[in-house]
Amino acid sequence: MPLMSENRFSYISLVREFLTALRLRRDASTHTVRQYALHLFRFFVFLSPGIRSVRECDTPVSSQYLFLDMQTEECINRYERDFPLDITALTRENIERFRLSLHETGISIRTANAYIITIRSFLKFLKKEGYAVLDPTSLELVRAPSRQVSFLTLDEVGRLFSTAEGDDIRSVRDRAILECIYSTGLRVSELVSLDRARVDLARREFAVRGKWKKLRTVYLSPGAVERISRYLDMRDDVFSPLFIRHNFDTKNIKNAHLDDESVRLTRAFITQMVKRYALQANIIKTVSAHTLRHSFATTLLQNGADLRAIQEMLWHASILTTQVYTHVTNPKLREVHERFFSSDGESAH
Questions:
Q1: Candidate list 34, 78, 230, 290, residue with the active-site label
Q2: Alpha-carbon distance 114 to 125, whole Å?
Q3: Which of these ranges, 218-232, 279-293, 298-312, has the smallest mean pLDDT?
Q4: Is 124 a catalytic site residue?
Q5: Is 290 annotated as catalytic?
């Protein structure tokens, strides 16, 4: 049921201020800000379905960028006149009904929780700004089932790498990318943002800004350094990105109006590349670039790395997130078990 209002305040402006605060106060990435904007848009569409068909100044508005792209007061006033909402009138019932609608679409509990987290953050911002809104702490998250991560065994990692073996520059690049992710535990977004000048191959390390722009140091394996060095030696361009596309003629770079960002690889490209090589390697698992990050963590754990050290290398805010990797079979646990139980299953005496 829509929360109609007499337009007591500009709720679109408030959303825009909230998104700006995410950037300035929490140093959120553009991707994160757009995700929050999309969550809030879908929530408002639930409250007032007509919003979905809105046209801003006779121009169709993309839902994902609705609260980011409106530029003029005229557009905002027209929008709020046609679809008035009173955020101060929000109730827990409104939000619980929205949560139920999300579950009915088949999305996971974890994804539905992400929407609620966005709404809570928005309400918390409004309270700080002095608006009398629903207490954000009254919105609880649904307990999600224990997270299970997919990872590759050492044999599968070897098979994956071997499929990218080749002498052409694309094969050498792809193998370098696979080695880089596996030896550092990088997220895909972190990988594609890497520039050559930031990577110290001599020291086998570099700094990377991850979620919320936090800075951490990651370390490359000798194999990854070798592959990256070989790839860079084959390049004859002056572009800054560490990994670039190679479907252009280097002799015609200036005429093609290419720059760093136009040749930088995308997250989608990396994701599809890893999937393609996994299929070629006959790996019967759903494999993504993030699977290599999981494999990085499980390899460390299997070889005796401390969970706190893994937390630091993955840059998890909470050790609880890192503990998901303890599902890996640990030989030490078997040794403990064998000390107390005999081979026939009877308790040892």
A1: 290
A2: 17
A3: 298-312
A4: no
A5: yes
Question: 197-204, long-range: CB within 8 Å, 24+ apart, which pairs?
Answer: 197/240, 198/242, 199/228, 199/242, 201/225, 201/228, 201/229
Give yes or no: 175 in active site. Answer: no
In the set 78, 170, 316, 327, the catalytic residue is 316
Give the residue range(s) of CATH 1.10.443.10 domains in the chain. Answer: 154-332
Instruction: Quote the CATH superfamily of domain 154-332.
Output: Intergrase catalytic core (1.10.443.10)
Among 211, 230, 246, 327, the active-site one is: 211
Active site residue 170: no
Active site residue 327: no
Query: Measured between alpha carbons, how far is 182 from 162 in angstroms, rounded to an integer?
Result: 14
* Residues listed for the chain: 349
Active site residue 276: no
Q: pTM of this prediction?
A: 0.65
- Does the structure show a pLDDT above 70 at 45? yes
Average pLDDT, the chain: 81
